[in-house]
Amino acid sequence: MTNSAGEALISAARVVATVGGAAQLHKIATVIRTQPGFTLLARSMVLSVSSSSALRPAITALVDAWAADCDVSGSTLSGMLIGAGAVADHLRATQSTEIVWTGPSTSEIPVRMSREVLLQVIASASSKLTLVSFAAYKVPELTEALLVAVGRGVSVRLVLETAESGKLTFDAATAFKELRGKAAFLSWPST
Questions:
Q1: pTM here?
Q2: In this structure, what are the phi and psi dihedrals at residue 113, rounded to the nearest 5 degrees?
Q3: What number of CA atoms fall less than 13 Å from residue 183's CA on the CB side?
């Protein structure tokens, strides 16, 4: 496996594993495993495995990368796909999405308020934290949490709207005046 061609093949296998589902990935890997190496027939067989229009460009990139590194056996490439698929499946299983609500309290649906999520993120920061906000005022609990983070060595950056750079009549940085000299303050550029 040549270095740049090998990297392209690994990258293409990762994309196929990320875009394709487990069943599609196993079909593709099974067809590839039966091939001793890259041939035009192998290319045709691999491209015919999936009819998914979303997966087609990824499969095409995979066989193109295989053609550029044709000394890789079908068995090796199949193993790469299965391994990349296992990692992609693991990452999907360990990630989750939660609804975070900014607005008035509601008892209609269970949601986490953005304030508590933000405080949790600040409390768990260990080295760097960047907070981007359009408008901020009356945030003493947030300011205190940021001061605690700075105290434990977290590098805090605040990217805030200013009266000069946007539609606010006041600078959002005013709400964080206790952090002056302890955190980096950045502002959005004027439009």
A1: 0.54
A2: -75, 145
A3: 29
72-90: pLDDT as tens digits:
999 999 999 999 999 999 9
Strand order, beta sheet including 155-160? 128-133, 155-160, 184-187
116 neighbors 105 (Cβ within 8 angstroms): no
- Of 90, 158, 95, the C-alpha closest to 122 is 158
Question: Under DSSP, is residue 79 helix (H, G, I), strand (E, B) or coil?
Answer: helix
Output 122-127 pairs: Cβ under 8 A, ≥24 positions apart: 122/146, 122/148, 122/149, 123/148, 123/149, 125/149, 125/154, 126/154, 127/153, 127/154, 127/155
The helix or strand, by DSSP H or E, that contains position 10, with its residue range, turns out to be helix 3-19
Residue 147: count of CB within 10 angstroms of its CB:
16
Tokens of 78: 């199949």
